[in-house]
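lol ok so funny story. i was supposed to be doing the assay writeup but got distracted and ended up predicting the structure for this chain instead. priorities right. anyway since i did it might as well share w the group, maybe its usefull for someone
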Amino acid sequence: MTVEWAYSGDYQLKGATTPVGLTDAWAWPLARLLDVHDGDTVKLAIDHGFGEDAKEWIRLKDVRAPELDEPGGPEATDVCQSWFDEHAPDGYVQVTTFRTSAPLEIRFRASFSRYIGIIVADGNSLNEWLRERGYTDQGM
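and the output, tada:
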């Protein structure tokens, strides 16, 4: 499946006499890969625009890969890295994130929250690509 995230076409700015052409502009936030931790977790430098940025670990939404110390874990990490090599060789992607918090019983023991995300580059979804290769709860 190809996902289109870039804006294109004409946009009429309020008060402008002619439309402004929008071509190949990235939707924000734009992010750059810092590290592939394992097959379903990556660290990104996320540019929110206007001088706002963050470095966050992103757990891939609807993707389940083995941990590094589990059978298949190192291979899953390599598969995730290979998507970046093919679809985002410069490391730049678009990310959509959702913040979650841990179940109640974990929150009382430690402060724990994470970002769940969908990563796309050049119209290709990393999440979908990994699911197609069996990295789902159903495929494990």
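Residues 1-8, 105-112 have pLDDT under 50 and may be disordered. The chain has three helices and eight strands.
back to the writeup now i swear
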